[in-house]
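Re: the request from the purification team.
They wanted to know what the chain is likely to look like in 3D before they choose a buffer screen. I agreed to run a prediction and write the result into the notebook, where they can find it.
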Amino acid sequence: VSSGGGFAGLPEPRGDNLAPLSVGYFGSLNFAKLHPAYVEFLSAVNLPTFKVRLIGDLLNREILERQSDDAGRSGMLEFRGYTTDVMAELRTINVMAYLLNPQHYGTAENALLEAMAMGIVPVVLDNPAENNIVEHQRTGFIVRNPNEFADAIEWLANNPKERSRMGMQAATSIRTRFTLERMEASFRTHYKEVMKKQKRLVQFQHIFGTTPEEWFLSCQAEPEIFREDGEICLPASSLSYFNLLEKTKGSVFHFLSHFPDATRLQAWAKKLESQK
């Protein structure tokens, strides 16, 4: 069951075999979502006029521009900013360089689904959510490193007819798999199975704990990061770091805003603030 659905009302794919390559990204530039090495992937592409339109908030713009300058690819990124007319922006691209942090918090990936439903070919990383949506070399490309990303982009640039065909297949796949009717039927099937089970009392404190700190830790993929003494043990190379800095999304700051008297939450939040 996906929370994505209802794409029939989006513009139909154009199927333009002759259009030149036009690459974009649609979504947050927060490194908790966007891959922190995004520019490294883009810089591997060996096309003289290669650019990427970034559609969404302008968070981390200065960092991304500096990374592009350092890579000798000044002007590679075109920042479009936040827009209320997403469809108009998506009509300007035919490939989506949707490279996300492997530890990202996304599930339904509505931005990816909307783009594919419009016939835009996605190039994504081998992350669980994206892997469940994109079929490699049929409805898009799943890559693992900058070299594979560059190969995919260059192939899409040099094979416009195949790119168009792949975009049409992407649109058909999304518009078929993610209808509201299918999602409702899937929900109903699950509920029917649950209703057959014997009723029982669930002691949620055994699952989530009894204190704000325990509730917080029960929601963490890596609870061992947060130590009993208020310290944080985070590997320097961990991509989870960016998720921990979120003000919402179930972060320590999110929990602390609701439980301001929780002493260990205070200590963990203070430690993270000092590491920014």
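For the purification team: The CA atoms of residues 103 and 239 lie 6 Å apart.
Please add any questions underneath this entry.
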